[in-house]
Please model this.
Amino acid sequence: MSRSASHASPTSTRAASRTFPLVAIGVGAFLLVLAGLLAWYVEPRAERTPLNTDTTTVFTGTGSYFDTGKIRTVHDKRITITRQVRGDVADGERGGTAVWDVTTSVDTDASLPAADPHDALQWTQERWVTDRKTNLPVHCCGESPAFRGEAYLKFPFRVERRTYTWWDNTLGATIPLRFRGTTKVQGYEGYRFTGTVAPARTGSRLVPGKLVGQPKRGQVLAEEWYANHGVELVADRLTGRVLYAAIGPRKTLRAPGTDRDAAVLLDSRKIAFTPATQRAQVALAQDDNDRLTLLGTTVPLVAGGAGVLVLAAGAVLLAVRGGRGAGGRERPEGLRRPDPDTSPTALETSTM
Model:
């Protein structure tokens, strides 16, 4: 095998040594730009309410409700609330919004599983449309009813330690939820918010007069009233996902023009997320946090650190080569001066 086949030529070796520092500087600069792009551009745009959500949350508790079979209010019974949220991806993509269809069923043990709305104590269907970044309502896409406030079903991203306006659909208005510190749900820490709802008239219903203390009247247009003993929500600090929720609804009927509850339709001091729902919500929040942390912190730090090291190495190598050129770097092969001892044109030693 020839010498040229087994070893790179000096010229190609020197060319590679000159190119490597420039390549290193280019790679380092790219990694630094990538780190900044992920941290300041990609990650903030990843903080968007998902289009394709499909979750079911279950609340349970004990309380009172009006039994239509017995035509009276029964007490100390288990009450279950099942809420299903499904994203309408097609409508969401068209409008650039989060379009969620929400069904809520309030059931007794007799009407479970919550599959047939005709058996439920209460069944509602809503369409909630929000800005994917701010979580504020967007009035489009068949929204029903017209929501207001800063939060419903979830809080905005990067939850703050302050009071939020939360939409209460039964009330048909917002309520203030005040920040109450941090707490843990299934070992995972979140921000806790609480509030109450004072009794308020929410509608009317035609009922037998005897149901509201007016037996001499066949039918009465009774007033529907609603209050809430307490709303408690625990939200994930980064994503705004609700990790734990508890409510204390009270719905009653009053005779027209009176200020006393005549019949209780639903009343519970506390109906809260089941442990299984809490675990599921925490798992979803952890997945969301891991994804956002990877994009916004882990990868940018690794890319930025590697970029600094590679860029510095390339700059040092380039400086070393530049120094050698200024201080007497070897001349290229074609410009090398002949050795006076070996050149055939040199004068030979005299024999005289």
